[in-house]
Amino acid sequence: MSARLLAATFSLVATLSLACVPEERDALLAFRDGVTGDPAGRLATWRRGGGDCCRWRGVRCSNRTNGHVVALRLRNDAAAAGGSGAEAELDDRGYYAGGAALVGAISPALLSLRRLRHLDLSRNYLEGSPATPPPAFLGGLANLRYLNLSGIYFSGEIPPHLGNLSNLRYLDLSTDFSPQLTRSSELSWLARLPLLRHLSLSSVDLSSAQDWPLAVAMLP
User: Fold this and answer.
1) What's the confidence (pLDDT) of residue 10?
2) Predicted TM-score of the model (pTM)
3) Three-state SS string across the chain, please?
4) Chain centroid, CA 133 distance in Å
5) How far is CA 168 from the centre of its chain?
6) Torsion 78-132-107-37 (CA) sign
7) Domain 22-217, what architecture?
8) What pLDDT digit, counting tens, does each position of 5-61 carry?
């Protein structure tokens, strides 16, 4: 077999191995249905009859997991053009500049992405209407290693269910907004994240968290 034919065969096998898992395609479509506003058309490729979901914008699959979705990267990069970390470019009304933010709510259909390791939804308006706390069901994504929900206009208590994410290395729940609407009255759930290396709770109200010294001391 010639080298060219061998390379073509390998490419075909790799492509086939990354074919979209039907259940996960449905989960992504359900997530898209929860997005009520997409002014920049960032999810334009996410449609029924839209081909392999592994090729959709922001979606990454892995042939090591037989084509399962392992990463969902939907960060609103336009908002971060003027800053880094917890900073973002806001217009004079306090909204994200650039008009690319997704609007809506985070669908529990994401729980069907059982191999998901990386979830970045930062700097979008995915807090629901009226604004809700970060979804407790995200604590069911057992394989998650990276979770970035920074800059989402959540309101309410951070759910301790996030402490179920025992594989988590990176967690960002910081916010660009004022006043502090997201809060945590207890932080003991952080002690259940033995692999955590990065934690950002900037602008989260911790004034009623009496256990924070112990929680911080137990972090790796």
Assistant:
1) 42
2) 0.84
3) CCHHHHHHHHHHHHHHHCCCCHHHHHHHHHHHHCEEECCCCCCCCCCCCCCCHHHCCCEEEEHHHCCEEEEEECCCHHHHCCCCCCCCCECCCCCECCCCCCEEECCHHHHHCCCCCEEECCCCECECCCCCCCCHHHHHCCCCCEEECCCCCCCEECCHHHHHCCCCCEEECCCCCCCCCEECCCCHHHHHCCCCCEEECCCCECCCCCCHHHHHHCCC
4) 15
5) 12
6) negative
7) Alpha-Beta Horseshoe (3.80)
8) 544 444 444 444 467 899 999 999 999 999 999 999 999 999 998 789 999 999 999
Whether the Cβ atoms of residue 141 and residue 119 lie closer than 8 Å to each other: yes
Residues 6+ away with beta carbon under 8 Å from 80 = 87, 88, 89, 123
Count CA within 13 A, CB hemisphere, residue 119. Answer: 26
Please choose, from the candidates 206, 148, 152, 156, the residue with its C-alpha nearest in 3D space to the C-alpha of residue 175. Answer: 152
Task: Specify which residues 200 forms β-bridges with.
Answer: 172
Q: Exposed, middle or buried: residue 53 (CB in 10 Å: 0-12, 13-18, 19+)?
A: buried
Q: Where are the domains of the chain?
A: 22-217
